[in-house]
Amino acid sequence: MAMNASVVTTPTLVIVGRPNVGKSALFNRVMQRRIAIVHEQSGVTRDRVTAVGDWCGKYFRLVDTGGLNVFRGGHKADGVFDEMIREQLEEAVVDADFIIFVVDVIAGLVPLDREVARWLRQLGKPVVVAANKADNDKIAVGAGEFAETGFTDIYPISCLHGLGVAELLDHATADFAMNEAERDEAPAINIALVGRPNVGKSSTVNRLLGENRVIVSEVPGTTRDAVDIPFEIELHGTRVKANLIDTAGIKKRTKTSSPVEFFGLARARTAIRRADIVLVLIDATEPGTAQDKRICRLVLDEGKPCVLLANKWDLAGKEVKQKELFERIAWEIPFLDYAPILTCCAVSGYNFSEILPSVIAIHEQMSIDIPTPLVNRVVQDLVARVSPPAGGSTRLKIYYGTYKSQRPPTFILFVNDVKSCRGNYVAFLKNQFRRAFGLDGLPIFIEFRERRRGDFHNAPDKKRGKSIASK
Q: What residues have CB less than 8 Å from 365, skipping those under 6 apart?
């Protein structure tokens, strides 16, 4: 299956500035919802956070970037990320159609603002200065000081109260085309990438997209925001729109050391909820940890289709065979038995050509509609081959079945006694439904509803109280 991934290109508005001036607050204000994490701790945003926004019918891609020289002289040793954040920022502004340079009007013009301004002038891109924290007219007067940056377009704004943001957007989007069709640009497939810290999520994103899109580091917890990355999958000459969500690593609750990490985990859970399909990344050298199980349980609880990616196979493959690895994962995480497993290596790119085809195949299965007569023919065949067990003195009888919903695939079976539905037989039914209807990678749910024979007295003979199950 020939398939390539390419990043979607649309008019791009990039927000830049030194740490803690309100870049993420402006991002959230423009999007009218909280996407980027906002916290008084500077340097919270490390990766590029992207979303599609609109202003008066003009649609654009809004990008929130990390602050330059984060934690210079700070309390934590995050200086290791400074160069990486600068690289991320440089890559972001290359694609920018317009740049919003955010400054703090209360702090005034500081040396780092001058440094950022000098760098922006060298780019030759259109720039507007957003003097944030101008919560009243008296403070807003101080915005004139930023004329020393060399930029003439300066707008005092207050992200907290929304003051001046409309005028700022009028200016920044003045040359953007009116395009109502962009309203339909929402990605067709939302793909969340989740996993415990430092299993290679950001490396996997960069390998999938073929570019250094998110920060990669040996330090666990590098990604704090849930980073949305719109892209397109080319399949047989057709482009399928998608959105890849790289999430913060999900840690044990007792190891969430800061409010920023806490909100990052909340974003990860929200990303799973938003996703159409979830890629769960595990470390092939240490599969099935308590954290892996907790993450997989979140995926199952949300009823999400899933692919398990066993990363770092270049290391694990020296110690175990692939069959042994699969058996261990199945033993450690038995409740996610519906998910296909792929061994891969984000460093070398091994087996990455199989990931997106697996996602597309599962996505296509999610739209399957199963007619009721077919459901009942399959059920009739199943109970003929394997009789339902007896629960105490009562043997389970299945009268009738129907397909309730696609996401997640849910079947309703009308039975004589719900209490007779034993767990092992339910698991058997799920596995057989998956095989019969081609629902690989999708969780299957079965609702059992108790009925008496008389409840079907108006149904045709085949549906009347006669049980499908043999005695």
A: 305, 438, 439, 440, 441, 442
Reported as a pLDDT band with limits 50, 70 and 90, residue 46 is: very low
Distance CA 281, CA 193 (A): 7
The angle at the Cα of 175, spanning 48 to 179, to the nearest 5 degrees, equals 80
Measure the CA–CA gap between 180 and 56, rounded to whole angstroms.
10
Residue with tokens 């703090």: 104
Task: Give how far Cα 142 sits from Cα of 145, 147, 155, 306, 349, Å.
Answer: 6, 10, 11, 53, 52
Exposed, middle or buried, 178 (CB in 10 Å: 0-12/13-18/19+)?
exposed
What's phi and psi for 119, nearest 5 deg? -65, -40
Beta bridge partner(s), residue 230: 243
pTM for this prediction: 0.62
Scanning 366-470, the segments in alpha helix (DSSP H) are: 372-385, 423-437
C-alpha 102 chain-centroid distance: 28
Residue 90 backbone phi and psi in degrees, to 5: -65, -40
d(CA 243, CA 8): 10
The domains located in the chain, with CATH, are 9-183 (3.40.50.300), 187-365 (3.40.50.300), 372-456 (3.30.300.20)
Q: What is the pLDDT of residues 219-233, one digit of tens each?
A: 334 444 456 777 888
Number of residues written out for the chain: 471
- pLDDT at res. 443: 93
Contact 403, 369 (CB under 8 A): yes
What would the pLDDT profile of 252-286 be if each residue is shown by its tens digit? 554 444 544 454 466 667 788 889 999 999 999 99
**What is the spatial distance between Cα 343 and Cα 297, in angstroms, rounded to a whole number?**
21
Residue 215 DSSP code? -
Distance CA 112, CA 125 (A): 20
